[in-house]
Amino acid sequence: MNDPIITSLLETDLYKLTMWQPMLHQNPATQAEYRFVCRNATEFPLGDLADAVNRELDALCELKFTQAELDYVSGLRFMKPDFVDWLHLFRFQRRFITAQNEQGALSIVANGPIIHTTGFEIPVLSMVNELYFRELRQRSGGDPTIEGERRLTAKIAKLKALKDGPARRNPFEFFDFGLRRRYSGAWQQQVAARLLAEVPEYFKGTSNVKIAMDLGITAIGTMAHEFLQMHQATGVRLSKFQKQALETWVQEYRGDLGTALTDVVGIDAFLRDFDRYFALLFDGLRHDSGDPVEWGEKVIRHYRTLRIDSSAKRLVFSDGLDFDTAISLWRHFADRMMTGFGIGTHLMNDLGPKPLNIVMKLVRCNGSPVAKLSDTPGKTLCDDETFVRYLGQVFGHPAAA
């Protein structure tokens, strides 16, 4: 029997902690439903993993934060003492999550108070990925890490070659966003350690809080779609949900963690809400769908319209990046704005076998549907088509058609 995949509650993305804190302060009674979805074809039915997933969930629900982990979280200046006290008491509750094989499909549903269910997403996706590739390796034989090492060496060589290019106003910086997409926990640790040793001038942090603590590097993350989506169903007028979410963030963090996510109802609707007040308070914006160059140019024009110097702001890109795309975007924008690149699958699951495209997203809040209307067709996620059309009408999004 293999050891549990997740052995520390700190092995999560930082944005889970940074969203969790305002959820605890502002929305502790909010009820939420999260659902697992696989978006691509797989080598075998994921439902075959249901029993193994249930064993992993049982083990996860036995974990608690250690004192060393809580001391680390306490040392992050934006984490508040009462939230750390909550983490001291916290355990995942098994009654809030189920996993089963539904005619070959893997069904995973977390349903309960959002302060208990939000944290399931990252460990669940990590579990499914590692279980899938462990089984795939047993079925096919061979060791994909040999090819993974070769590809990683080529990536590092590409990064080192940047030194020979023309100087730019702002440096190239990238982060590991691969925890949810990784081949395995051991592989992520190995890749992160090698990047830190060989290209520290470019590798500036990781979303994996446990690896950040272990390697002494910066933990990276602010907010994800669920934080804004939650505000679609917490009593605020629907047309004002983005402004309410951003205002909640500002009041919680008072200038820290100033990167806002732009594509919950599309970049155009976001920028209409992102007025001079928010544009001055937030340090930058994160791209996660749609054409990245078009997105960045819209953001620059928006800052100009608001009479704000965009050179003091940052564009963060995180939508399915590889290094070629990231470097190209850096060259396009680096003389006008600071940039950062969160790289996930291409960094932590590029070993040959086709990666999974899996998500576990918030679909209902307080009994009402919530949705993300992506700037990329096919990434919209909601189980209520009527609500999708209504939300699209409110914000003038093509999903209303």
Automatic annotation (TrEMBL):
GO cellular component: cytosol
TM region(s), chain numbering: none
Keyword tags: Glycosyltransferase, Ligase, Phosphoprotein, Pyridine nucleotide biosynthesis, Transferase
Enzyme class at the top of the EC tree: ligase
InterPro entries on file: N/Namide_PRibTrfase (IPR041525), NAPRTase_N (IPR040727), Nic_PRibTrfase (IPR006406), Nic_PRibTrfase-Fam (IPR007229), Nicotinate_pribotase-like_C (IPR036068)
Enzyme Commission designation: 6.3.4.21
Domain Nicotinate phosphoribosyltransferase N-terminal stretches: 10-129
GO biological process, one term: NAD+ biosynthetic process via the salvage pathway
GO molecular-function terms, A-Z: glycosyltransferase activity; nicotinate phosphoribosyltransferase activity
Coiled-coil stretches: none
Description of post-translational modifications: Transiently phosphorylated on a His residue during the reaction cycle. Phosphorylation strongly increases the affinity for substrates and increases the rate of nicotinate D-ribonucleotide production. Dephosphorylation regenerates the low-affinity form of the enzyme, leading to product release.
Pathway connected to this protein: Cofactor biosynthesis; NAD(+) biosynthesis; nicotinate D-ribonucleotide from nicotinate: step 1/1
Positions of post-translational Phosphohistidine modification: H225
Stretches assigned to the Nicotinate/nicotinamide phosphoribosyltransferase domain: 172-398
Catalytic reaction equation(s): 5-phospho-alpha-D-ribose 1-diphosphate + nicotinate + ATP + H2O = nicotinate beta-D-ribonucleotide + ADP + phosphate + diphosphate
Alphabetical list of SUPFAM superfamilies matching this protein: Nicotinate/Quinolinate PRTase C-terminal domain-like, Nicotinate/Quinolinate PRTase N-terminal domain-like
Protein family according to the UniProt entry: Belongs to the NAPRTase family.
PANTHER family documented for this protein: NICOTINATE PHOSPHORIBOSYLTRANSFERASE
Function per UniProt: Catalyzes the synthesis of beta-nicotinate D-ribonucleotide from nicotinate and 5-phospho-D-ribose 1-phosphate at the expense of ATP.
The name this protein goes by in its record: Nicotinate phosphoribosyltransferase
Organism per entry: Panacagrimonas perspica
Gene: pncB
